[in-house]
Design a protein that fits this description.
This protein is an alpha/beta fold. It is built from 15 helices and 11 strands. It has an 11-stranded mixed β-sheet, with helices on both faces.
């Protein structure tokens, strides 16, 4: 019997290479677990019907010695990543019957590597949310406590991995949408440097913010996936050419900065702060210098994000009009088709952000709000660059609190948005960030620490992350 609880990509690859079990047997073990658990968790929107055939193809790669580290690895995808011939709805009714006509670039890479795509996972509608409660297809639950959220917007991918229903999963990050569910579900979540992984074939939320991001049970898992997928893609105008992917940080990690003033906001759970201080003490005992730094502009990150992101949402979602593809409502004339299709096709949170984005981009408010937010974004980026001249990494808690109860914040959008307070700086600045488990609360809920690094310094994050995993 395969122990899915402790399995990693490296150990699975070793066992498959040695013939301890076949790819089909490994895939079947995950399909059995999905059948057993997903009725309660609802991580998946669809499990593909061709996975066993794909398993046999992957097995042939082991036979002919062409297998990679990802060959035969069962993985799951957030519902906004396109797979040719498969449905992709972005968690929205307006795309409920949309079938992709091409593969996203990251999917091409996974298929070439021989990974087994089990299916697509639930998500907040168009990645708008921090709890996977805004999906048009129901709520996903946290495998650690079914009464709590798994985080969002990539909550389905996180729940699938935490529930042993996949060995690796992909989500997307716009503002903590992988790091926050990683925190809530006791996983490792990497937000890569903006432009490191191709965005081609990803249903966009915020073009200047979105980034494909992997989940893993160990730092080594996300490192393997990142290494496999982080390549230049001429199909993506935001993809960074290989010769420009130079780590901006100093070699070796010695000093870790802590922006103390950023940790004093409202709504931060005392258990989170206590665990964070304990984690810093462990890092100090492991030989790292912990340095307090002052980056006061970070407190404006969330405000800037919630102006910039809705503006991009308003623009991106204008294409979903009920005419070209997706859900379409009948109307007496063209305008009525538009209004009914968008009114019925989009959920409450999506409509809220579309309206907000349209407002900040409108005449008379563009300069007052949107341009000001862009200026703040640039100041945040500059402040972080200056901070990295003093320290090698910056550490904060990943989220202000452990996983909260389902329904707890749904009537208070501002409280929900505050879940992203520690995530926003990395997305605005386009720098990489890594979330990894740092302990548990007394009632068994995961806690997490986050490290941020300069552009293209993912290796520094992996180095410290793997070291942190060994600290007791």
């Amino acid at each position: 019997m395969i122990d899915l609880t402790t399995l990693t990509i490296e150990t699975a690859h070793k066992e498959l290479t040695n013939g301890t079990y076949t790819v089909r047997e490994l895939v079947q073990a995950y399909l059995d677990e999905i059948k057993k658990r997903d009725g309660d968790v609802h991580a998946y929107l669809e499990v593909y019907d061709d996975v066993l055939k794909e398993a046999d193809r992957a097995q042939a790669m082991f036979t002919d010695k062409t297998a990679t580290l990802l060959t035969g690895i069962p993985c799951a995808l957030k519902d906004n990543i396109l797979v040719e011939g498969k449905h992709a709805s972005a968690g929205s009714k307006i795309l409920e019957k949309y079938t992709s006509v091409y593969d996203a670039t990251v999917i091409k890479a996974l298929k070439k590597a021989g990974a087994i795509i089990l299916g697509r996972t639930n998500m907040d509608e168009f990645a708008m949310g921090s709890s996977t409660q805004t999906s048009a297809y129901g709520v996903t639950r946290n495998p650690y406590d079914l009464s709590r959220v798994p985080g969002g917007s990539s909550g389905g991918s996180a729940a699938a991995l935490a529930g042993n229903m996949a060995l690796m999963t992909l989500g997307t990050e716009t503002c903590g949408s992988v790091r926050q569910p990683a925190s809530f579900c006791g996983l490792v979540g990497l937000k890569p440097t903006y432009g490191a992984l191709s965005r081609h074939g990803i249903i966009a939320m915020g073009n200047s913010l979105d980034q494909v991001s992997p989940f893993g049970k160990k730092v080594s898992d996300v490192e393997i996936v990142h290494t496999m997928l982080a390549h230049y893609d001429p199909e993506d105008a935001t993809s960074v050419p290989e010769n420009l992917r130079v780590p901006q940080g100093r070699p070796g990690v010695k000093k870790i900065g802590v922006p103390r003033s950023f940790l004093t906001g409202e709504g931060i759970d005392p258990r989170t702060l206590q665990n964070f201080e304990q984690s810093l003490e462990k890092l100090k005992n492991a030989g790292y210098a912990i340095v307090d730094i002052d980056v006061p502009i970070l407190k404006y990150s969330l405000a800037a994000y919630y102006v910039i992101m809705p503006a991009e949402v308003s623009t991106n979602l204008s294409r979903f009009d009920g005419i070209r593809y997706g859900f379409s409502a009948e109307g007496k004339n063209l305008m009525e088709v538009y209004t009914k299709s968008r009114g019925q096709g989009f959920g409450k949170e999506a409509r809220r952000r579309i309206l907000l984005g349209t407002y900040v981009l409108s005449h008379g408010y563009y300069d007052a709000y949107y341009m000001k937010a862009l200026e703040v974004r640039e100041q945040i980026s500059r402040a972080l660059r200056d901070a990295f001249k003093e320290v090698d990494l910056i550490a904060t808690p990943t989220t202000p609190s452990p996983a909260f109860k389902i329904g707890e914040k749904m009537d208070d959008p501002v409280a929900m948005y505050l879940c992203d307070v520690f995530a926003a700086p990395a997305n605005l600045a386009g720098i990489p960030a890594l979330a990894l488990p740092s302990g548990m609360t007394e009632d068994g809920l995961p806690l997490s620490i986050q490290f941020m690094a300069p552009h293209f310094s993912e290796q520094a994050l992996f180095e410290v992350g793997k070291k942190f995993e060994t600290i007791r």
